[in-house]
Design goal:
rod-shaped; Zinc-binding protein; two-stranded antiparallel sheet; 76 residues; single chain; 53% helix; mainly alpha
Length: 76
């Protein structure tokens, strides 16, 4: 039988603690790991999902005297 309010609260706390243990790292940590495209001129990093268009825009805006492939040699 049993199951007073104190016991219910204790069970809820234990259940909550189990969920906390299984939680993964924060999204910010994964985003930092995904920043693996780097401009070789200014060393600014970009996410791995960045398109060639965004790289081209960065190169034209920030480094007009440099070639796109100087900034991002992986695009060749």
């Amino acid at each position: 039988m049993g199951g007073g309010n104190g016991q219910k609260a204790k069970m809820a706390r234990e259940k909550h603690m189990e969920k906390q243990k299984t939680a993964k790292g924060s999204q910010l940590e994964s985003n930092k790991k995904a920043m693996n495209i780097q401009c070789k001129v200014c060393m600014q990093t970009f996410m791995c999902t960045t398109s060639e268009v965004k790289c081209r825009e960065h190169a034209e805006a920030k480094h007009p005297k440099s070639d796109l492939y100087t900034c991002f040699p992986h695009l060749k």
